[in-house]
Write the structure tokens for this entry.
Amino acid sequence: MEGRASRSSLIRRFGEFDRGSVSAMKWLISDEMLERTERLDIPFSRHGIDPYGIKTTDVALMMTVFSWLYRHYFAVAVAGLDHVPSRGRAMLVGNHSGGWAVDGMMVMASVFLGKEPPRLAQGMTDRFINRLPFASLYSSRTGNFTGTPDNAVKLLDDERLLLVFPEGARGTAKLYGERDTLVDFGTGFMRLALQTRTPIVPFAFMGGGDAIPTITNLYWLGRLFGVPYIPVTPYLVPIPRPVPLEIYYGEAMFFDGTGNEEDRIVMGHVDRVKERIDAMIRDGQVRRRARARRRVGDHGDDGSASPGRNNNEEMR
Amino acid sequence: MKVLVTGIAGKQGRIVAELLLGTGHEVCGIDRRPWYDAPRGLSLHRADIRKRAAEDVFRAFRPAAVIHMATVTHITTRSSEDRYRINLNGTRAVFDHCHNYGVRRAIFVGRHTYYGAAPDSTLYHREDDPPMAVTTFPELADLVAADLYAGSALWRFTDLATAVLRMCYTLGPDRQGTLAAFLRGPRVPTVLGFDPLFQFMHERDTARAIVTALTGDFRGVYNVAGPDPVPLSLLIRATGRTPLPVPEPLFRLAVGRFGLPLLPRGAVEHIKYPVVIDASAFRTATGFEHQFDADQTMDAFRSG
């Protein structure tokens, strides 16, 4: 990986009190990720903390790990990043798949590494995350808060970029055979988008179900650990396999309204977003198969989508 | 203006009294506790706000404004029944006297912990958020009730301009208050794997905010806060203490022992999750600006 930020330079940058929970892993943080973190459009204090508790060193550490996964482990190919606004409020809305939120992590990596200046996609998490020790701490230090309407409105009013999976935990619970399908979308995100006049950038995430091919979900075991379920793969543990992943961002969608409309109307808007994502998944399946064929044909020399780069032209 | 301050002998009450005297107000105070070196020009009455002697002070002094700070917030020192009586009956008596003796302005000094801390509570509570502390921290129920009771004066006594202020934690050289008590020792217990944001302001800013609320025809329920919140771990380190992360199951066993502060059961949620308020409405309505940032406030507490 890239050059490391020395411990003394971190202390110089963030003051003597930043010896928090990541101190043991701080030597891991790459200079590139730290530099990108500092260029985020987020008002960090002298201590490297924003008004919501997002912390520069924690974001940089997270992105150091994600960037390795993004560029090397999965070799994520991304298209349509231009549709994600460079500044100002927006909502990334897409499909969930693959046992747990590997898709969310790679979407966060794609806008952090692919946008200039970098952007931090802030996930709206399920309630259970905040009940778990460490998960609660790191998710909030990196900007991922419980997806309550109040949190979302406040963040959008502050011109942040939100990451929303309207399928929720039911989305990651999809089994291998259901990986490229969509389950019911909640309507909360649409009401928020209407209320705060936020553009919705739909995206299709491809390959999540191949990375973590779930054969069954153990709900009783999940309850024991305070999570909705534990996914089981053919090799038992839900560790993602190093398969190629793809993210397609579509054109931003704008909806007019106040957020107080009847359910019928809001559902209509939600269906339009869902249909768009569904169409992008179908296109994605075709391209994904072509990418796989080329890879086999080229004996592993994948010319279609060089990993970790913005392959806008190539993949259109 | 003639200002009556209840709970004046508390540390925060003293700072408010001195600030009022310094800005030319005529100040009278009621407290059960003594204040031996009270400043000149202050008339002090040793009385319980629930008793007739306190009513006599209203009758004789005829205040134009009342700042009600006589609520018991220390949870470990009294039985909850005693606290309930003081906080609820005391608040009731103060507002009744305000109504009966022609007081024009009343300020109830409440707490931001009203909103409670829970895994799904939002950051930056607004004034219309419900008081979740009743369930997350049952020991605070009397303070929540007193807050709501004081707010009811807005419709019960429309001649009385009532302001309910939900103040964030106070910190400063006096080392008094809920947060200061928590930070008292060299080692401060935290719950392993949790590091909530803590919102606090300098004790002088707290006093200035209370006095600011006296001006104009200011009424309503307002959150009051100063600088942006900081993580608990940073607060502990910046005040010269050492965090002691304890796994949650052991936490309840450890508090009150090994030199660690004694905490009520409900306090655990408040050390796991943040209570952060949005104080923009108060700033807009009064023009209040804090003078001490988070670093200055933590330094003041550390070296105080």
